[in-house]
Design goal:
With 238 residues, this protein is of the alpha+beta class. Helices cover 30% and strands 23% of the residues. The strands form five sheets. Strands 1, 3, 4, 5 and 8 form a five-stranded antiparallel beta sheet that branches. A three-stranded antiparallel beta sheet has the order 2-7-6.
Length: 238
């Protein structure tokens, strides 16, 4: 569904005249609805780690290089997903500023490498001494909408843009935000919106169920997928 269709759908539910254009329009109503659509998209993207916004990124280390660029569209890293695939070790982080400075000043050798994201760069400690080791992690993209050519964007830029996030949620968000902005009774509309967001969060992805019993041939908990990935000792896969 295009941005224009989302705005027109919201206008229908609000009993307003459908705008024929949005992004290039000078009509006050269209401009208001566009502003609310921008607000809704940005806010909804940060409500949850939506699976549709999750991506994987890998890069090779370069000897004696400690900092690396983040992927395009990076918003935030997913916890416990950073690994050195070459050495099969989990990387510790994202360290706080205090923890990072302590790791820099410490004379103790770090068993598992640490990382910190600062100034839009991904830092590694200790600095890799060799090249071509593969670092991998998952992250949330900040691109919650896209162009007609499916290029990710952080904001609506054209009437033909489409949503990456659930467009019905965006429509409901625009409706209650418009009522609130105009001093109308928006309580019921906002309650309905929040219920739909909660339902969408509950349905998002496919969480793995962990059984509390153990496999008699393995000390690790069994997963309902029937696949045992491995055991971890000191952050390294055995």
């Amino acid at each position: 569904m295009s941005l224009l269709a989302i705005i027109q759908n919201a206008a229908d539910r609000l009993g307003l005249t459908r705008p024929s254009s949005v992004v290039t329009s000078s009509d006050p109503l269209a401009m208001t609805l566009l502003g609310l659509a921008q607000e809704e998209g940005k806010t909804l993207a940060r409500r949850h780690s939506w699976q549709v916004l999750q991506s994987e990124y890998t890069f090779p280390t370069v000897g004696e290089t400690s900092s690396y660029a983040l992927p395009a569209g990076f918003d935030r890293i997913l916890v416990d997903t950073v690994f050195n695939r070459t050495t099969h070790r989990r990387m510790v982080g994202d360290l706080t500023p205090a923890q990072w400075q302590e790791s820099q000043a410490s004379q103790v050798t770090i068993i598992n490498p640490a990382f910190r994201i600062r100034g839009n760069l991904f830092y590694i400690n200790p600095t890799p001494s060799v090249s071509a080791q593969t670092i991998a992690y998952e992250y949330i993209s900040k691109n919650w909408c896209q162009s007609a050519a499916e290029v990710g964007q952080t904001a609506w830029a054209s009437d033909a843009d489409t949503g990456i996030l659930d467009e019905e949620l965006m429509t409901l968000g625009i409706v209650w935000r418009f009522k609130s902005a105009k001093g109308l009774d928006y309580a019921e509309s906002m309650t309905n919106y929040e219920m739909q967001v909660a339902n969408a969060v509950a349905r998002d992805g496919a969480p793995m169920r962990i059984q509390t019993d153990t496999d008699p041939e393995c000390d690790a908990p069994r997963f309902n997928s029937g696949v045992v990935i491995g055991t971890v000792t000191d952050g390294a896969f055995d």
